[in-house]
Amino acid sequence: MLYTFKSPAAANLIMLQPNGARLLQIIGKDPGPKGIVLPEHMPDALAKLEAAIAAEDAALQLAAAAARTNGEPAPEPRDVSLRQRAKPFIDMLKRCHKAGESIVWGV
Question: How far is Cα 67 from Cα 95, in angstroms, rounded to an integer?
Answer without folding.
Answer: 40
